[in-house]
Amino acid sequence: MLKKLIIATVMLILATPALASHCPKDLKAVDRVLERIEAKEMPELELSDEKLAEVISMRDQGEELHEAGKHEESVEMLHKAMAILRIKH
């Protein structure tokens, strides 16, 4: 039992920096697409004002979660925004 706990703890410690560095990459990907939408460079991705506001809210929440050290939750939120924007992760 102790061995499993130690292994799980080590895996969690090793995974946290990976998630932490993943958040900024996802944020940049979302920002790039939002900039292109704003510049009217992506007519194939027309979003309603409501959907665009939802994506921006998800992006901002993802950034806040990242800054709070909640990297797994941040990645989940950013991946939801990326799915709407059709960004592969």
Account of the protein in words:
There is one protein chain. The protein has a single domain (19-84), classed as Substrate Binding Domain Of Dnak, Chain:A, Domain 2. Helix content is 79%, strand content 0%. The protein contains 3 helices and no strands. It has helices spanning 2-38, 49-67, 71-84. α1 crosses α2 (49-67). The chain is elongated, with a radius of gyration of 16 Å. The termini are far apart.
Structure summarized in a few sentences:
The protein is mainly alpha-helical.
- Structural classification: mainly alpha
Task: Summarize the helix and strand pattern as letters.
Answer: HHH
pLDDT averaged over residues: 84
Proportion of β residues?
A: under 5%
Number-wise, the strands total 0
Characteristics of this structure?
single chain; 89 residues; mainly alpha; Substrate Binding Domain Of Dnak, Chain:A, Domain 2
Topology:
Elements: H1 2-38, H2 49-67, H3 71-84
